[in-house]
Amino acid sequence: MKIIGLTGGSGTGKGTVAARMRVLGAGWVDADAVYRTLCAENREMLSALDTAFGGVTDANGVLDRPKLAKIVFSDPAKLQQLNEITTPYIRKASLDAIHAQSACPIVLYDAPTLFEAGADDFCDKIIAVLAPHDTRVARIIDRDGLTDEAARARIDAQPNDMFYREKCDFIIENNGDLDMLYRDTDALYSQLIK
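^ thats the sequence. predicted structure below, dont judge the formating
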């Protein structure tokens, strides 16, 4: 089994690439889904977040994700603090989920903050999915119901395309043409399983 990192900013189409590779036989672990599960279940991590960011959980200990997002996406230092708290929890749960799919020829580790979390150290190869800025903004607004300003703030808080071009083994350009995206994804999958 090869562990293949899949990264890129919000709205680039990582989910579409992951879904296509899953159809082709890849396993898949979504770091965001792992994080959401931890946010719902891991009391130790939730307590640490509440202490660090001041009242981001309610009386029942449930995380107010929009409140936390507003805090961290407007301040790079707070985003770094969030990552420092959550990364060890996400890493352990992700590795457990990856190894549970060891029968697959490759397992994608879909992680927007792959490098920031240091998760590139357990990946055999890394793919970045990139897309034009305005396309990403439109996708985020449509998908997450954010305002234009909030979508742009989210993108601006993330690394730019050059960051991914310099660090990743493969780049998939997602310009909005789904047929081309599938062709590129299929070709890359064939290369990865060799």
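The two ends are 11 Å apart (CA to CA).
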